Amino acid sequence: MATSILIIDDSNQVRAQIVKTLQKVSLFDDYLEAADGIEAFKLVLNSPVDLILCDLEMPRMDGFKFISMLQTRDELKDIPVIMLTGREDRDLKIKGLEEGACDYVTKPFDAGELVARVKVQLKIKCLQDELKRSNELLKQLSNTDPLTHLYNRRYLMEALDREYQRAARKESSLSLIIIDIDHFKKVNDNYGHQQGDVVLAAVAALLKKMVRSYDVAARYGGEEFVVLLSETALSQAMLFAERFRCAVQEIVFTGKMNGLTITVSLGVATFPSAKVDCVDSLFRQADEALYKAKQGGRNKAEA
Ligand code: GH3
Ligand code: MG
Ligand code: MG
Ligand code: MG
Ligand code: MG
């Protein structure tokens, strides 16, 4: 990815000197320039910036105001800012650091020092970005079932609490479907556990394809899946359950399980309804409906 720097100073000459100095060491692909805080703020909002060099005294919007405005935006507050200050500006340096700048360079600047300080900030930024990426990955891993790549039970329970509260607050409906593969034990017995996993992944992939982007499809346990359909009444949830039931029986496995077809049973429950007044009772209703579907001969959706 291209690395870019934003240089803010009301003096064209200072900006030109900085660009020339940094170009010599090829630290950046893009050099953006602004003559005051307002111009600079427009630029950072519209293009990604990795580092900012910012003069303090400028017309219209000064450096302090600009730096404090960066801190108010989540997507901008981590961009490192190096202040450009006068040699004697001790109090201004302290004020700038307190506003959120991470370092300063005194003007007239020394080329070697400028380059060295810029390199330090780029290194820190790079480490921070890496940390952010691994945190995101960790979060994703902790929410995901590794076999099916659906959400796991932990995430489902969190989402269920959140969606239930939202539905109660907004007086909208929330449906929950439990899906259980019929006679799945036979698949394992006949083809082995590994092939059983292939079947689980196939059912999960179909489910993922059929839900809307804002629904939550999760692997609840072994061969059981749960779908949370927000703002969905019972009749619509039943329609979805039926569509999914039909789509599952259309899957024909190949390879080691050549010709195998499977079916699922589904239990559907909706909030609000007579017997549902909390998350637990929503789940219980869906579980009872699933039991009814199994008792009724499997390959069925019940409410
Ligand atoms: P029913 O129609 O009543 O649901 O019958 P069933 O055989 O599907 O249900 P049962 O609960 O008796 O068996 C579920 C099986 O799922 C047993 C277990 O070994 C298997 N299982 C659970 N987790 C996994 C998994 O991650 N991979 C594989 N291959 N099998 C699993
Ligand atoms: Mg100035
Ligand atoms: Mg089961
Ligand atoms: Mg069972
Ligand atoms: Mg089963």
TrEMBL record:
InterPro entries to which the protein is assigned, alphabetical: CheY-like_superfamily, Diguanylate_Cyclase, GGDEF_dom, Nucleotide_cyclase, Rev_trsase/Diguanyl_cyclase, Sig_transdc_resp-reg_receiver
Domain Response regulatory: 4-122
Top class in the EC scheme: transferase
Molecular functions per Gene Ontology: diguanylate cyclase activity
Superkingdom, taxonomy of origin: Bacteria
Modified-residue entries (4-aspartylphosphate), positions: 55
CC annotations in GO: plasma membrane
GO annotation, biological process: cell adhesion involved in single-species biofilm formation; negative regulation of bacterial-type flagellum-dependent cell motility; phosphorelay signal transduction system
Phosphoprotein keyword on record: yes
Catalysed reactions listed for this entry: 2 GTP = 3',3'-c-di-GMP + 2 diphosphate
EC number: 2.7.7.65
NCBIfam families: GGDEF (TIGR00254)
Name recorded for this polypeptide: diguanylate cyclase
Species, as recorded: Geotalea daltonii (strain DSM 22248 / JCM 15807 / FRC-32)
Lineage: Bacteria, Pseudomonadati, Thermodesulfobacteriota, Desulfuromonadia, Geobacterales
